[in-house]
Amino acid sequence: MMIPTYAFLAIAIILAIVIGRAGTILRENITHDLKKSRSEKLL
Q: Among 18, 31, 41, 43, which residue has the least CB neighbours within 10 Å?
């Protein structure tokens, strides 16, 4: 079964968006946790 070129392109774009969003959310959570743990150590 061959996948049409436009379908492959659409899947690639959707995957790029999803992975990009997931990476951004993960990075925000990690930096937020690091800031929180640093502030707790100062107290």
A: 43
